[in-house]
Amino acid sequence: MITLYDPFERMHFGPGRCFLTGQPVGPADTVPVFDDWLQATYGLADRPFYLLDHSQTTYGALRLPLALALHERLQSLGHAVQAAAAAGPAALRALPPAQLWQWLGKIFYGIFATELVQQQQPLIKPQYPLAENKHLLHRIRSFFQLLQGLRVPTDYADFVPGSVFVLEADDAYEAPVFELDDDLNTLVISLKLGPSVLVATLIDIGFIGQAMRQVYADAQRPLHPAQVAEFKARAYYAAYLLAAVPDIYPRRPGPHDPPGTELVLDALVDDVTATVFNPWENLAYGHTLAGLWPRWGLTEEVILRNPFEPLTLLYDALGQPQGPAEAAEQLAVLAYG
């Protein structure tokens, strides 16, 4: 069984050590956080990327140190996602969920590691120091153990490491071709790749996917961009409410594990005595929703006019799923109301 690397023991997140194995690597042994094909397709290489301390870098400058032996494995993963993204939302949904989770997880970890290295600069005094947030580091540590599945063929035993949703944005409505949202504190990330929108909660081992399965089923159609934003708000708020952090246990593959498996990861959450989700509060959800709806001028006051039923564009007044045209009409009424 491989020995899982833990960069949190000595807080090794900078250059010089492979981010997956911890072995020494040269300064040229790096991979882009955002794959080369992603940068080329959406013109990201020189696009500014803003960090928590308000400093600026570029998407192309974000890189992770990686042992040479692992380059082919990560490239293969990236190529699989590239082909699916070119084919559209249905092809992305057809990918194994763990594969999409690993690809998005690598991007998320690359952003997190960049932020952490930046905050360790001697002249930086971060407003929200990540290294001092013990609860966050505990969550990231569990996430990183699951991300070790990037190293070798891995079986996530009877669970998915996180919940990944694939939405389709209706291209009849104006929206950015590429869009990134992430929240380091709740371990969520979303990427818009043309008509496809990937939303992932990275450390819930499927709890959020189960809780949102009906909303996700109702969202399997082209959506107005504001409907996409509402779905994201629901996923982001669910990640905020998530109280359970899984304990991860590696073990050797057994005779019943898939052929070729080199690592098996078990996840355990004490959901008998522990609370999986904290209680839902409409006021807090309305705040999350307002943060994703500024493009349409929808404020918390509008969202919470009925404090018992926050505004929704995914569903009509009877609670039935509605299409993008109906959502656009509803937005027009709200704009002049």
Question: How would you explain this protein's 3D organization?
Answer:
By secondary structure, this protein is an alpha+beta fold. Helices cover 36% and strands 16% of the residues. A five-stranded mixed sheet has the order 7-8-9-6-10, with helices on both faces. It has a three-stranded mixed sheet with strand order 5-12-11, with helices on one face. A hairpin with a 5-residue loop joins strand 2 and strand 3 (56-58). The longest helix has 23 residues, at 97-119. The radius of gyration is 20 Å and the shape is globular. The mean pLDDT is 91.
As residue ranges, the low-confidence spans are: none
Largest sheet: 5 strands, mixed
Return the structural class. Answer: alpha+beta
Distance between the termini: 63 Å
What is the count of helical runs?
Answer: 11
Order of helices and strands: EHEEEHHHHEEEEEHHEHEEHHH
Tell me the total number of β-strands. 12
User: What is the overall pLDDT average?
Assistant: 91
What is this structure, in a nutshell?
The chain is α+β, with helices and mostly antiparallel strands and 337 residues long. The chain is built from 11 helices and 12 strands.
Task: Give me some keywords for this one.
337 residues; alpha+beta; three-stranded mixed beta sheet; 11 helices; 12 strands; 36% helix
